């Protein structure tokens, strides 16, 4: 292949755009695309003044937010930057952000960072709509992690008691998403890789999530193939922008935007993560590292035959030989996930995060719904093994 042909192939695979109906107007992706993508989305939305919502570390320790500010200033749409969104999007931070949004007269939020600022921005827009009425205002999401919060219509945040709360509406989905891998270079390694495991969690649990159509499940297969390939590659060379861009696209495929007829929760690994995350201060990427492999092992025994077939099918996309048994293939997938966590240096325990051992039964009951659920005893065992 000539140098020109190779460059063209790489460009075609790493640059482009995608649009969907309703709220999401477009996804722009490619290294360096922020300079053209952000003005384009602002014009599409007819936005006049933007509030940047982000976290303190990203604002103070990197130049990512300044790059976004400079672009907004060049196009006379910069209102202010609110950089007080903490982990798990505390409600107090959201209320402060909402007040700043109103004070500057913003009509759009540009969320920069991981799941916390993106979900916080959804919550700000939700509360703004509750207060002011009229059409929902919009968010443009610029993720710097692989958590994929930008592809959902829900916003999870933490209330005054430290409990996870959610609001949801189709209008809360970001109106624009910008995947610029160059902006992820400053993301700390542990955060980058662990949110990559969160994307693995999304893709795996979508394979047995109710109401997900087969085409989306095949996207999840492709997402898993790339996540298993490029997460180790990104760990080995953190400056590999192409690998980072492919990981951002894999994260997108892991939680592809889709309108469902009714609400459909992802699965047990996510349920456990939600109960562990905000309550005990564990990042959601790390909860996926803890819970996904043992949950998949559990599914080898408890899932329907159809769900087992979908899970077992992952091995083909990972280029791993089948054991000859669907059930054993699901167990093998669990081991592959566990090994990936180990290879990425992300092994941890509930002890490290000071989760009281006696809380295990309560966490299990909350995750499955009740102590009478058939999976409850096994989930208690899973949590016990995580210490």
Automatic annotation (TrEMBL):
<dbReference type="InterPro" id="IPR056798">
    <property type="entry name" value="ADH_Fe_C"/>
</dbReference>
<feature type="domain" description="Alcohol dehydrogenase iron-type/glycerol dehydrogenase GldA">
    <location>
        <begin position="28"/>
        <end position="180"/>
    </location>
</feature>
<dbReference type="InterPro" id="IPR001670">
    <property type="entry name" value="ADH_Fe/GldA"/>
</dbReference>
<dbReference type="GO" id="GO:0005739">
    <property type="term" value="C:mitochondrion"/>
</dbReference>
<feature type="domain" description="Fe-containing alcohol dehydrogenase-like C-terminal">
    <location>
        <begin position="194"/>
        <end position="375"/>
    </location>
</feature>
<protein>
    <submittedName>
        <fullName>Iron-containing alcohol dehydrogenase</fullName>
    </submittedName>
</protein>
<dbReference type="GO" id="GO:0004022">
    <property type="term" value="F:alcohol dehydrogenase (NAD+) activity"/>
</dbReference>
<dbReference type="InterPro" id="IPR018211">
    <property type="entry name" value="ADH_Fe_CS"/>
</dbReference>
<dbReference type="InterPro" id="IPR039697">
    <property type="entry name" value="Alcohol_dehydrogenase_Fe"/>
</dbReference>
<dbReference type="Pfam" id="PF25137">
    <property type="entry name" value="ADH_Fe_C"/>
</dbReference>
<keyword id="KW-0560">Oxidoreductase</keyword>
<dbReference type="Pfam" id="PF00465">
    <property type="entry name" value="Fe-ADH"/>
</dbReference>
<dbReference type="GO" id="GO:0046872">
    <property type="term" value="F:metal ion binding"/>
</dbReference>
